[in-house]
Specification:
Belongs to the oxygen-dependent FAD-linked oxidoreductase family. The protein is an alpha+beta fold and 484 residues long. Helix content is 25%, strand content 21%. A hairpin with a 5-residue loop joins β13 and β14 (300-307). α5 runs antiparallel to α11.
Length: 484
């Protein structure tokens, strides 16, 4: 079975949640410092904010700028989810190089809201700042493989990242939706189908070039701006500054990746989820799998995933699950790029409502299945974690949920006619399943205690990073990490 719309969305991430930016095709490698080694801190200004709107005419002399009424404006402000088509930025800066980002930030800082748009997949539409400045980074999308590393502009889409890496025989674990931007995915952590084998996307980050609120370009790495570097690995899109490029370490691409899908008979959802929770944590890291529960009467269940290795080896692992719960099986043996394409879905815009929870330990399957009973059009997707994800301590990066079994996404179709109903239904399920936590790349404006849900015990340190790099909340939005 080809994973379709609902499945690929689970890995998309909030790619446009405002913070991720991109490197222009002519930009210097992100590892080349643009500030002195160590930490050169921006000042905590305490200065009275400037008055009046930005001087858009002056900015237009420096950057390609679209204003309401300009040709191309309506199309440029559109993001993946049509639900946010009604939002109207005051201006859209179409940036082609890091200096364009600097100019845009300097023009709008503390005057109007600022948000960067990379892939445009923010689940809450946070990359479309109503009456604010959208920094459009789509033109900064180079993918430059340099030996065992790759320098990627923050506007690059996953389909282009995968194609370029595969042609060079390299691999970077990331999400599945082809039009998701590398930026937001990385900044929120980056859960993907190869995560148990290779880790999260953010685990491969070597350095990032960032335009901070004071208008400077900084290089964040283990040796330069180390606290900012820590925060960029899972601290969420939209926070701390605008990233203009990323440098990642890569792995040799696997020669064979076997993909699979398992379908189970009606009425078996509880048994499938119970066995999945037992089976996956005991599986080798080469195996990744999710379990999808589909609302209805009865609730449906299917399991999909991949194995870094041949189909015979995969078959032996699947036997350990299907010996307990019988189902039909489809297996394909592909190369690395073929496997990434297998998990991709349509690039067409999709109207939906979603939220998330974290499966920290095995739960009573009935808690998850009973609340989906009769809810057609709603899916609950549990994406497996463990393996290489859990090998890193929860406080080593900003991504907190290292020891979890999986990330749970609650997803509902929603067009303009039933969006409010779908939003309420998703909220009921989020409350009813009795789980805590949340994945910031499935950002949800209505999530209770969202700061703790997304960041756990890392929240305090993230607030301190915000105090250091954005004391005046230049990059503030509804769920921004703000100064302590």
């Amino acid at each position: 079975m080809k994973l379709g719309r609902r499945n690929f969305l689970k890995l998309a991430g909030a790619a446009a949640a405002g913070a991720a930016a991109t490197a222009c095709s002519a930009a210097p490698p992100a590892q080349a410092p643009t500030s002195a080694p160590g930490t050169s801190l921006p000042p905590s200004t305490g200065v009275t904010p400037p008055s009046g709107p930005p001087d858009w005419a002056a900015l237009r002399n420096k950057v390609s700028l679209l204003l309401p009424g300009d040709s191309g404006y309506e199309n440029a402000k559109r993001v993946f989810n049509p639900a946010f088509d009604g939002l109207k930025p005051a201006a859209i800066a179409k940036c082609a190089k890091p200096e364009d980002v600097q100019a845009a930030v300097e023009a709008a800082a503390r005057r109007v809201p600022i948000a960067a748009r990379s892939g445009g997949h923010s689940y809450a539409g946070y990359s479309v700042p109503d009456a604010g400045l959208m920094i459009d980074l789509g033109g900064m999308s180079s993918v430059d493989v340099q030996g065992e590393q790759v320098v990627i502009g923050a506007g690059a889409k996953l389909k282009d990242v995968y194609a370029t890496l595969a042609s060079a025989g390299r691999c970077l674990p990331a999400g599945s939706c082809p039009s998701v931007g590398i930026a937001g995915l990385t900044l929120g952590g980056g859960i993907g189908v190869l995560a148990r084998k290779y880790g999260l996307t953010c685990d491969h980050l070597v350095s990032a070039q960032v335009a901070t609120a004071d208008g400077k370009l900084r290089t964040a790495s283990a040796d330069s701006e180390p606290e900012l570097f820590w925060a960029l690995r899972g601290g969420g899109g939209g926070n701390f500054g605008v990233v203009t490029s990323f440098t990642f370490r890569t792995d040799p691409s696997p020669s064979v990746v076997s993909v699979f899908s398992l379908h189970f008979p009606a009425g078996s959802a509880n048994d499938v989820l119970a066995e999945w929770q037992r089976w996956l944590p005991e599986a080798p890291p080469e195996l990744w799998a999710n379990v999808v529960l589909s609302g209805g009467s009865p609730v449906g269940a299917r399991v999909s995933g991949c194995y870094v290795g041949d189909s015979a080896s995969l078959g032996r692992e699947l036997d350990k699950l299907t010996s307990k719960v019988k189902g039909t099986r489809t297996v394909k043996q592909l190369d690395y790029l073929g496997a990434m394409k297998y998990f991709s879905g349509s690039e067409n815009r999709q109207s939906f409502v979603a939220s998330s929870r974290i499966l920290g330990e095995p739960t009573d399957p009935a808690k998850l299945t009973s609340i989906l009973n009769g809810r057609r059009g709603m899916d609950l997707l549990v994406d497996g974690l463990g393996g290489a994800v859990a090998d890193i301590a929860p406080d080593a990066t900003a991504f907190w949920h290292r020891k979890a079994i999986g990330s749970v996404q609650i997803y509902s179709q929603a067009d303009t006619r039933n969006r409010s109903v779908a939003t309420g239904s998703v909220a009921e399920v989020v409350t009813g399943i009795g789980l805590s936590g949340g994945y910031v790349n499935y950002i949800d404006p209505g999530l209770p205690d969202w700061m703790t849900a997304y960041y756990g015990d890392n929240a305090t340190r993230l607030k301190q990073v915000a105090k250091t790099y954005d004391p005046d909340k230049v990059f503030g939005f509804a769920q921004a990490v703000t100064p302590a």
